[in-house]
Design brief:
The chain is of the alpha/beta class. It has helices at 13-19, 22-26, 55-65, 83-91, 111-125, 144-154, 175-178, 204-217, 242-254, 256-261, 272-278, 313-319, 334-343, 349-354; strands at residues 45-51, 70-76, 97-99, 130-135, 139-140, 158-160, 163-164, 182-185, 188-191, 232-233, 238-241, 288-289, 294-295, 323-324. Helix content is 35%, strand content 14%. The chain has a seven-stranded mixed sheet, with helices on both faces. The chain has a three-stranded mixed sheet with strand order 5-14-13. Strands 7-10 form a two-stranded antiparallel ribbon. The chain is globular and about 55 Å long.
């Protein structure tokens, strides 16, 4: 499937509205295994999914996200072949999935921001009312009918983890993100630590590499965060109202240098959106709730959350969050099967998709 295409033909938003009888809009959505809990107005939720591995697991996620009031936009990392994903989605019967233009989604790079923005832009253009960013290794903890009702009740509120910078729990307080230069080097993102800063955590290879990066940076101007924004950090994953999405896209149209600045930021996805929503004059910033509604377990000093297993199920369920991450079916498929049954997803999806391999 080409970027911008769908796994099967999709309806326009006006067609979707026309297809819904009045009783369905106000009471239940039939055929998706979940209720809409008394919707009084049509709400279209955009789920933007960033995927880079595990096609069969992505197919299971698509099954869990299926709902008449949900549009799904999938970004496949440009560095991976797309055919296994297209085949898995087709075999699993995933319908209406929009494949976005592909960007380099390497860890720590601005391509991840570009991918999220692509989904946000497409969702706004398609008339969606609310926007949730997910990983391909996420999974919902509630039936989608409940999540649709949650975003309907959220209205103009957005749910985004955030904190002002500098922050003591980030190395250098976050200055390595706002003031230091980061480069793509041999397939990795490497940050130059200027002279006078603490480098005691670097090993011998790191010290040599940092000296090379200092030479590369020597003639560059001092790096400073754009003066029209106050820096904020937080989790990459967000839940945005239409007002927030509109503001972000308008802001970027007015300040084109903001995205260019982040080409030299390490992990820009953990501050790009927070800074726009909390660090500018966004009229709705008081409605940005400091909770992304994600369950995850972070080991000490880890750069990634721990893979969740069946032993984590009691804590996952007790959390009452909207989504959890991260899961890996090659490590523990049972936990995904248990959650799929809870939310009404088709538990045979991964097996159906795997048969195509």
């Amino acid at each position: 499937m080409r970027p911008g295409s769908t796994a099967t033909a999709t309806h326009s938003r006006s067609r979707i509205v026309a297809d819904l009888p009045e009783t369905t809009r106000q009471n239940h959505c039939e055929g998706d295994g979940s209720r809409t809990f008394g919707l009084t107005a049509l709400v279209t939720l955009a789920c933007i999914v960033l995927a880079h591995r595990a096609p069969e697991q992505l197919a299971l996620l698509m099954s869990a996200l299926h709902h008449r009031h949900v549009r799904v936009y999938v970004h496949l990392d440009r560095r991976i072949p797309s055919d296994p994903f297209s085949e898995a989605l087709e075999a699993a019967g995933s319908r209406g999935v929009v494949l976005l233009p592909r960007y380099d989604g390497r860890w720590g790079g601005v391509g991840i921001v570009d991918a999220a923005l692509s989904g946000l832009t497409q969702g706004v253009a398609d008339g969606c009312d609310y926007f949730i960013l997910l990983s391909g290794q996420d999974f919902p903890l509630r039936p989608m009918g409940e999540i649709v009702e949650f975003v309907r009740e959220a209205g103009s509120r957005s749910y985004v983890d955030h904190f002002a910078l500098p922050a003591p729990h980030w190395r250098f307080g976050g200055r390595d993100r706002t003031d230091f230069y980061t480069y793509d080097l041999l397939g990795r993102r490497e940050t130059c630590i200027p002279r006078g800063e603490d480098v005691s955590f670097l090993n011998r290879r790191g010290l040599i590499l940092n000296e090379l990066l200092r030479m590369r940076t020597a003639l560059k101007p001092a790096r400073r965060f754009p003066p029209y924004v106050r820096p904020f950090g937080g989790s990459q994953w967000w839940n945005l109202s239409h007002a927030a999405a509109d503001y972000i896209l308008g802001f970027l149209g007015e300040h084109r240098d903001y995205r260019r600045y982040h080409e030299h930021t390490i992990l820009p996805d953990e501050m790009f959106f927070q800074s726009i929503l909390l660090g500018t004059e966004f009229p709705g910033r008081q409605g940005v709730v400091n909770d992304a509604h994600r369950f995850a377990i972070w080991p000490d000093r880890a750069s990634h959350p721990r893979t969740l297993t069946t032993s984590d199920l009691p804590a996952i369920v007790k959390s009452e969050k909207l989504f959890a991450r991260k899961f890996d079916a090659s490590v523990d498929s049972t936990v995904l099967a248990e959650l799929a049954a809870r939310v009404g997803a088709r538990t045979t999806v991964m097996a159906d998709a795997a048969k195509r391999d």
